[in-house]
Please model this.
Amino acid sequence: MNETVIEVRNLSRNFGATIALNDVSLNVSRGVVFGLVGENGAGKTTFIKHLLGLFRAKSGTVRVFDLDPVKDPVGVLGRIGYLSEERDLPDWMRVQELMNYTQAFYPKWDEGFAEELRQTFDLDPKEKIKNLSRGKRAQAGLLIALAHRPDLLLLDEPSSGLDPVVRQDILGAIIRTVADEGRTVFFSSHLLDEVERVADHVAMIHEGKIVLCNTLERIKENHRTVVLQFDEPRTASPDFPEILRCKGEAKEWTLLCEGNAAEIQRRAGEIGARVIEESIPSLEDIFVAMVKSKSMKMSSLIEK
Amino acid sequence: MQIRISLKDGVPIYLQIANQVKYLVASGRLSPGEQLPPVRTLAEDLVINPNTVARAYRELEREGILVTRRGAGVYVSDAGSPLAKREQKKILSERVDMLLAEAEQLNVDLEDLIELINERKKLLKEKEKKP
Model:
């Protein structure tokens, strides 16, 4: 059960002077919903294109189903259902033609399931792809990604620019896919509340580097928002290595820290403060704090 | 079963489910023996990872609030919420203490008292049977 579906080692990629991926290593086990989060331009799409064999790894290695996606595209792509952010579908085809066309590529295409999805998404088989609304177009893309019941569902920013109804369809598809024993989902998103809902593993990518990668459960366990109280008002913000973000004044300061409750309690004691409130931050809070603190550390390095 | 998930306050989703099920059981909106939705159904309803629902159910089972019947699904345990159980015991203990004190004052021993309780229970049952 614990077999590895995606194994990426020390992958780096640059486009001219721009570093898109910087020494990225990542493992995804079978049966997992893996969320890759990061800002626009952080390297998410570049990473996914390597998994699909659309980019050749210039340094580092990429293995999907223990195969090289560039050398064995049939072995890899035949088992992947992929929905790109641009949803690049042949505009001139009708919905039914798109289904027939895609079916020809996948021996495992499930005709009954495809039809069921078409009805659920309320797609008119005679409609031209180019006339579909944004949402319907995404649903058509999702249909052809799902109908061959892929071992790995790969979604690049599946929800971007879509209304809540279609977003629910996509999240529902993720849930049903993983509920089918042994299937794996890898998706990128900048909508952190969606990731928190459906992912069990999360990797955060920032400026081409993985800055955090763990199970969602561990990530939540390892971060705390605390309110510290000091006996005397202070002008300088409290400072210890675990602090990602700090806000406050005088006697009360709110911190978002990396570390479990006990560690932070100890740190607070060391600087003469009491923890008067403690809570678990949302994934979004953690991400924002992380990105801001990284950017600040980087800019302070440059200044020196 | 009405469960609401909030992602604003950072509480892990499995905990939100576990806490809300506990509340529903304690308040009687879920009764002992009642079946809970299957993991997959609840996951799809709430649009969350099925593993998260399974985790919440496991937690509730460990605490004795839910039981899994093999191949038949997940149910509210017949014992009900241990919390509610404790509360019941507390209320009845006070009454029993009063009854015991009164019996002692009236010189009725424990055996006769238990016999009386059984008799009264029988009478009540017969009354219930009659329309």
In short: Chain B touches chain A through 17 residues (CB under 8 Å). The two ends of chain B are 34 Å apart (CA to CA). Chain B has a mean pLDDT of 85.
